[in-house]
Amino acid sequence: MSAPPLVEAVDLEKHFPLTRSATEFFGGHARRVIHAVDGVSISILPGETLGLIGESGSGKTTFGWLVARLHEPTGGALRFSGRDLLGLGGTELRQWRQNVQVVFQDPVGSLDPRLKVWQIVGEPLRAQGGLTKAEVRSRVKALLPTVGLPPDCLDQYPHEFSGGGRQRLSLARALSVNPKLVILDEPTSALDVAVQAQILNRLVELQRERGFAFLLITHNVAAVRYVADRVAVMYLGRVVEVGSVRGVLERPIHPYTKALLAAVPVADASRRRTRFRIGGDVPSLVDPPPGCRFAARCPFVVDRCRVEYPALREIAAAPGQLVSCHRAEEVLDISPASLLETEPAPPSPEAPAVAPGDGGA
Amino acid sequence: MSDPVVSIQGLSIDYVVGAGRFRAVSDVSLDVERGHVVGIVGETGCGKSTLAQAIPRLLPEPPATIGAGKIFFQGTDLVQVPRWKMPAIRGTGINMIFQEPLNSLNPAFRVYDQVAEAVHIRQVRESGRGAVVRTEPGPFDDSRRPSPKASDAWAGKVVPGGAAAEAVHRREVDRRTGRSRDEVRKEVLDYLRLVRINDPETILNLYPHELSGGMRQRIMIAMALSEKPSLLIADEPTSALDVTIQAQVLTLMKELIEEVNTSILFISHDLGVIAETADELGVMYAGKLVEFGPVGEIFASPRHPYTKALLRAAPTRYKSDGPLLSIAGNVPNLARPPPGCRYHPRCPIARPVCRVEPGPPLQAVTGAGSTHRSACHFAAEVPQIP
């Protein structure tokens, strides 16, 4: 790796303090803290797509906001093209912002309903200053076809667009200042399959044409599979596994990654699951216990997992893939499918298939 | 085709908005067999939720109007049932689980009160004191008689004497069902255990906002099941949940289907979820049911071009394998649906006849006896679409 990574996060940390109730305050209780992002070290190379997957509450959106400097981190370091980001402020920060743009999760809420298309899409341009209204309009007009919108919709309002159209507007706004990194926060989760395919295709084409780097934050494993070059899996504020997209998705090592992949429903009626062996809910992020965050739900847990946090490390069998599990070597060959019980074929209504085991886990 | 729990025949639903008239559901016919899970898939705006809400008549009417068709449920045509009788039917046989469990639970009541209410309604019904569904009101129809009010007891009004009445007065025994509060509590706990909630004693006293999404959806399922419905309508029940939680809830639903023997109409936009749960699958496009059949058959060899395109749009490949296949064009505006077959502007095998003649009614695709039906003139050619 000769070129410095575009974004380099080292032990990045974001803790949100909770407000104490009056009783807690006067009772002298310590302030409780939500460990939203807890020591995440990830780098993003120029022109690559890093997929960040995890369930809600895993801290993936918070991490995206940290990289865009929409949140101030409470610890760790963040560098952009080798330059320290956390020291930036004022005008410098404002100028830097054109390097990183965000496509937000909610295509309805992130577009001002009272602004017209050219005002929405041109807002980052105007924020950077130095352009007249006519220039902004002509730039926006040139930009719209690149995301697949007709150039004559400049004076329409966001409500006139469908969900996919709004997501395209949001994307056009992010691309307007020609950023180096676009953070896509759940860009397709509100969309139908067919529209999702259109947007994902467009993203991949744009990257090929113009060399953006993407940070794709999503819980949608299928989208990550198609768009990403590398994948990081987050669970409760920590990265549990990083590696190439094929490596992580085809040969997941961490038990949580296996569980996540096993849980994704497959559009294949000939292989139906009858039982999912990962129980429990995602635990709270408030003052999490020491040790591995997945220990409470992990089927392969040993005593050591509850005490000592496993550091991210590379194991010999899978070069280039970092995993944070004490038992990585032992669980290496367990396939995600073994976390499920599957039926060979859909049960015919007359002859019910084998009844799901009522004992067991 | 013997004993459907609900049988929808030629149902059309319009929304009248201002001067516009949108036909959200047009001419849909569908049977849900006893003990079966029927999945309905389609994109946003294809009318699948409208269809789901029309069955228990939960649609706001107006703006919605049922233009034509019949919904037979337990021998009653629900379209003809007067509004005031609907609550009794909803309680007795049809239940719904919605997408947003937080919006469907009352934030001001504890879990116990909400589940107990559902249990209570069923008990009232079983005790024969509640409203009873009748196709014709009989001479002794008491369903419109005002029920005894709780305020009577509070106001010290005369209640029937004896120890039982004393218990009613102290609100230990429910006056209408004669069940004690302990019994109700026990039953509520049983239902919470049925939906695999650990530590139900604690959960009972919590408010909905204190629960996670998966827990809330389980409470909803517990409430729905406590009324022992013969038809459960699940409208995107797991779309708001994370995948590992979704997998848990789906597993649970499948186990419960066998335990309580209910039929489910399962609405989803997620083909994966449907592939996993449904026995039969209906595909909707622009308000029409375009394909219906056993789920395995449809996934293996779809016989409508739209189904085929929908199945292939699901991203299952890597970037280096080439672009995803999407469906060109957009979903049509239902105020001005295209003439002829509604899918023809986007269809790769459209012929001149498709532009003129509306799609045929669902017809069997593989021999007369098959239940796999498609609404395409050229269903036989669909397997050849590359």
Structure, explained:
The complex is a heterodimer of chains A (361) and B (386). Chain A has helices spanning 22-26, 60-67, 90-96, 117-121, 123-128, 133-143, 163-175, 193-210, 221-227, 245-250, 255-263, 303-307, 328-331; strands at residues 7-17, 33-44, 49-53, 75-80, 83-84, 100-103, 181-185, 213-218, 230-235, 238-244, 272-276, 313-314, 322-323, 340-343. With 361 residues, chain A is of the alpha/beta class. In chain A, 44% of the residues are buried. Chain B folds into two domains: 4-109 and 184-278, 3-Layer(aba) Sandwich (Rossmann fold); 284-326 and 333-384, no CATH class. In chain B, 32% of the residues lie in helices and 20% in strands. In chain B, α4 (111-126) crosses α7 and α9 packs parallel to α10. The two termini of chain B are 34 Å apart. The relative contact order of chain B is 0.14. Chains A and B meet through α8, α9, α11 and β11 of A and α9, α10, α11, α12 and α13 of B.
Topology:
The complex is a heterodimer of chains A (361) and B (386).
Chain A: E1 7-17, H1 22-26, E2 33-44, E3 49-53, H2 60-67, E4 75-80, E5 83-84, H3 90-96, E6 100-103, H4 117-121, H5 123-128, H6 133-143, H7 163-175, E7 181-185, H8 193-210, E8 213-218, H9 221-227, E9 230-235, E10 238-244, H10 245-250, H11 255-263, E11 272-276, H12 303-307, E12 313-314, E13 322-323, H13 328-331, E14 340-343
Parallel strand pairs in A: 3-8, 3-9, 6-7, 7-8
Antiparallel strand pairs in A: 1-2, 1-4, 4-5, 9-10, 10-13, 11-14, 12-13
Chain B: E1 4-17, E2 20-33, E3 37-41, H1 48-54, E4 64-73, E5 76-77, H2 86-92, E6 94-97, H3 101-104, H4 111-126, H5 150-154, H6 163-169, H7 181-194, H8 200-203, H9 213-226, E7 231-235, H10 243-260, E8 263-267, H11 271-277, E9 280-285, E10 288-294, H12 295-300, H13 305-313, H14 352-356, E11 363-364, E12 373-374
Parallel strand pairs in B: 3-8, 3-9, 6-7, 7-8
Antiparallel strand pairs in B: 1-2, 1-4, 4-5, 9-10, 10-12, 11-12
Helix pairs in contact in B: 4-7, 4-9, 7-9, 9-10
